[in-house]
Amino acid sequence: MQTLLFVTDLYYEAKGRNYYEEDLFLTSELREDFQLVICHPEDTETFEKDFDLIVFRNAGPVANFKDKYQAFRNRAATGLKTYNSFIGKADMNGKEYLIELTNAQFPVIPTIDTLDSLNKLPNVALYIVKPKDGADSIGLEFVTKDELGDKIDSESKNLLVQPFINFEYEVSFYFIDKEFQYALYAPDKAKRWELKEYTPTEKDLAFAQQFIEWNNLDWGIQRVDACRNEQGELLLVELEDLNPYLSLLELTDETRQNFVKAMKKSIQKALQA
Ligand SMILES: Nc1ncnc2c1ncn2[C@@H]1O[C@H](COP(=O)(O)OP(=O)(O)O)[C@@H](O)[C@H]1O
Ligand SMILES: [Mg+2]
């Protein structure tokens, strides 16, 4: 059997989510087909050369171990086989891609990093500012137009500015490779991680799929996070191509088992590549 180094921070305290529950489930399934060892994201270097594939899962915000993450990415680029593949353009490299997608007129929450570009955003009363290397809502702030000048340092460009979107709800689309798996939404806006099954329309799927195509990963799991605005349109909030939490234990047994099957197949593909 081929070997997997399964990378997760079991006891990371994520809001509304228990990483360890998800990963204990997932590893218990994967070990049926692979020889598997669990490793903390900051400890991989000692072990990674001894495994056929490194499966990067619920690592928590990599900004918490920035240097080690960057070193890991450098090693991954020069010979380690990883899952996801690290050729993505989205969250695995920080949130900068939101500016690229805004400029290319994709349906994303309009995003800028310098006040010179303020004309690219709608004129609203309230903005949201967030760090480019943020995750798990770290550093997210509400700011009025008047306050923006003080907040945004046009030199360092380490923050993003977006209009505050008074959305109806948030919805996430989960993909393995380029195949849609399931969708979940948060009907109560105040409870981002209380998720219910969502049945996407053709149009919703086309919306999500365009970001998967744009990112063009060789293999891996991605989550397209979107919000439905007051006009009824979907806008991308985030394309999580590094370590999307999957809410596997919230799914029906059938959907969960289908996901596991698809993930095993995708890992086999990665191993053979
Ligand atoms: N522009 C925005 N307008 C309204 N709510 C937002 C906006 N950006 C983020 N949020 C809220 O904050 C949450 C976290 O933001 P997100 O961009 O996904 O960063 P993170 O990487 O921290 O998850 C979102 O799920 C959403 O509820
Ligand atoms: Mg998010």
Short description, anyone?
With 273 residues, this protein is of the alpha/beta class. Helix content is 26%, strand content 23%.
What does this structure look like?
Strands 10-9-8-11-12 form a five-stranded antiparallel sheet, sandwiched between helices. A four-stranded parallel sheet has the order 2-1-3-4, covered by helices on one side. Helices cover 26% and strands 23% of the residues. With 273 residues, it is α/β, with parallel strands linked by helices. The chain has helices spanning 19-30, 66-77, 97-103, 145-151, 202-215, 253-272; strands spanning 3-7, 35-39, 53-56, 82-83, 126-131, 141-144, 159-163, 169-176, 179-186, 196-197, 221-228, 234-240. The longest helix has 20 residues, at 253-272. It is globular. Adenosine-5'-diphosphate binds at residues 109, 128, 130, 134-137, 140, 162, 164-165, 170, 192, 225, 237-238.
- What's the helix-strand series? EHEEHEHEEHEEEEHEEH
| Spans where pLDDT lies below 50 across 5 or more residues | none
For the CA atoms, what is the radius of gyration? Answer: 19 Å
User: Mean pLDDT, as a whole number?
Assistant: 96
Q: What's the overall geometry?
A: globular
User: What ligands are attached or bound here?
Assistant: adenosine-5'-diphosphate, magnesium ion
Distance between the termini: 16 Å
Strand order of the largest sheet: 10-9-8-11-12
Strand content: 15-25%
Structural domains: how many: 3
Helix content: 25-40%
Number of helices: 6
What is the count of β-strands?
Answer: 12
Structural class: alpha/beta
Please describe the biggest sheet, giving its number of strands, its sense, and whether it closes into a barrel: 5 strands, antiparallel
